[in-house]
Amino acid sequence: MNDFYEKLPKEINRETQPYSARKPVEKPMNHHMLLLVRLLAIFILTILPGCATTNTIPAPEHLTAIEQFLLTQAIELSLTAEDVLAIPLPKGETVTLETTGLTVEQRFLLGAVGRWLGEQGLHIQPKDEKATYRAQILIQSLGTEQSLSFFGMPEVQGGLLPFAIPELPLYKAQYQTGYTRFRLDFFETTSGKFVRSTPWFQASTFFNEYTVLFFIGFHTTNLVGPFEEQIPSGTDREHATDY
Fold first, then answer.
1. Is residue 242 situated within a structural domain?
2. What is the per-residue pLDDT across 95-133, written as a single tens digit (0 to 9) for each?
3. Most buried by CB count within 10 Å: which residue of 38, 42, 175, 231?
4. What is the pLDDT of residue 167?
5. Per the domain annotation, does 233 fall within a domain?
6. Cβ-contact 105, 71 below 8 angstroms
7. Rounded Cα gap, residues 222 and 120, in angstroms
8. 12: how many CB neighbours lie within 10 A of its CB?
9. Distance between CA atoms of 24 and 41, rounded to whole angstroms?
């Protein structure tokens, strides 16, 4: 009997093996499931770099219209603040204006300060004409800053996909702020003797744009301009910012 069992083939057909002894058959992954996994991986790779990012945007070479509003109205807000003191010179004196600062955007500042000094009773003289006093405008800051906050899927240009995907923001905010800070130093024209300095004039303006749920957009600002739905009338204006 033992010889009979030894002569049997060692490899028994799989169909004759008991169910518990069979190895499971490895079936290939479902095609739709594989496609879903790939799309999920692509989505994660593309959306994660753009989630909750805050970047500082470099200023453009030329000022945009909004940036011009930010600068000019920051200057005017600083000159019309409630805590601005009177000029320490008698009314009727003649003054020439000069500027000192790092920025080149100073022409509007000269005009705005000259107008304000005229409202204080001083007479502004051109540089080539003799005046009793010289007013030096010392500029610490006159410029704008921009930053961006974004949560969503940024724009995808080809690469992993054979087609481009537009930007899909769940939340996007672009912040623009204008700053100004300066003071006036008065000198006697003939002797160059220092007379007195004014306190610092300073103010800031902002224009923020928001996008939520892909296409709902709105903005907030303390500017007055044509981008607002309604421009206040002359009697409603607290400050003279007619642009």
1. no
2. 988 888 776 678 888 889 889 889 888 898 887 678 899
3. 175
4. 73
5. no
6. yes
7. 26
8. 10
9. 29
Number of domains the chain is built from:
1
* Secondary structure (3-state) at 67: helix
Give φ, ψ of 228 to 5 degrees. -85, 155
Of 233, 224, 232, 236, residue with least CA distance to 76: 224
Sign of the alpha-carbon torsion through 12, 13, 15, 16 = negative
Both tokens assigned to 175: 């912040």
Give the span between the Cα atoms of 2 and 49, in whole angstroms: 72
Helix (H) or strand (E) holding 2: helix 2-6
What single-letter amino acid sits at 123? H
- Count the residues in the chain: 243
Range of the domain at 131: 65-155+166-221
**Rounded distance between C-alpha atoms, residue 26 and residue 97, angstroms:** 87
Q: What is the pLDDT of residues 149-183, one digit of tens each?
A: 888 877 777 666 666 777 777 888 999 999 999 99
- Does 40 map to a domain? no
Tell me which DSSP letter residue 14 carries: G
Specify if 32 maps to a domain. Answer: no
Nearest to 203 by CA among 41, 40, 99, 84: 84
Query: Distance (Å, rounded) from C-alpha 218 to C-alpha 174?
Result: 11
The more confident residue out of 239 and 104 is: 104
- Which residues make Cβ contacts (< 8 Å) with residue 231, sequence separation at least 6? 224, 225
| CA nearest to 52, candidates 170, 220, 168 | 170
Q: Extract the tokens encoding 183.
A: 């003071």
Q: How far apart are the first and last CA of the chain?
A: 113
